[in-house]
Hints:
six-stranded parallel beta sheet; 14 helices; alpha/beta; elongated; 345 residues
Amino acid sequence: MTETAPRPTLEAVAARAGVSRATVSRVVNGGDGVRDVLVERVRKAVEELGYVPNQAARSLVTRRHDAVAVVVAEPESRVFADPFFALQLRGISKELTAHDNQLVLLLTEGRDDHARVGRYLAGGHVDGALVFSLHLDDPLPELIQRAGVPTVFGGRPGWSGGRSDVVYVDSDNRGGARDAVRHLAGLGRTRIAHITGALDQTSAVDRLDGYRDVMADADPRLIAEADFTPAGGERAMRELLDRCPDLDAVFAANDLTASGALRVLRESGRRVPDDVAVIGFDDMQPVAEQTDPPLTTVRQDIEEMGRLMARLLLHGLDRAHRHEAVATPPSSVVLPTTLVRRRSA
Length: 345
């Protein structure tokens, strides 16, 4: 075993800076009431000695852990296979890192995991939580509320019952869906099908509503339910071709679903976009640019959604730490979407 040098102590920093231990503690832990000249001397001593504050001791003083739980209400097999989650986590991580906060990733595989996550959040290990990919029957919101942890949600909550204190970040799913279907109609397509996402999630419901806004009189057989996965897209596309072989366009709820639909269309001998035009949703470039043909899709800034979630949470935590009066909770944010045209439509 390699021997390690003893860690520098507060006393060593105080001796190097020529100040008291209490002064060092106030500077290191972000306290007030220390003259600028002394702050500079302490910081110089900290740098020279390589002093690292003890987080447990620091938390006792600041009542902050500098850690945020990121709760993804999906099994790990889904999280690590879907680039959507990687993009959102990257945005969150960048924002937390910029503010010297740690990311604690919590995944839910089943009901037992919900209880575990609830216990962890209630245990005082983190300052707040960022939660996304919730399903309508998910017990997590109730567990989080019971834990009393400041939280920002990813996606419009369908379970909030109109509560004004629920803060979330989302994209204009309904408006983006309308843009996609209007584009297909503008191409002269009249038998436009829709492959939904998982309808126990508000993003899928909003995109279905956007489709119906434009296709109010559409044949109900042109709608097939899926689950935001390539396999779901394949299954739904086969159902649609069996029911409506004369369809001439497909709006898929996300890019992964569209990629599965494209494979089935190719296997069935349909040419894209000549016979069937296809549009996805997300604009995840590792997917949209590598499909055959490259995918026309609705772009939402997934990474920016993650950054905004973290920013809203940290801003609220800072205000609470400074004991600022908060008349109203932070406003939720809905980001705009844009149609990105490639060769599939």
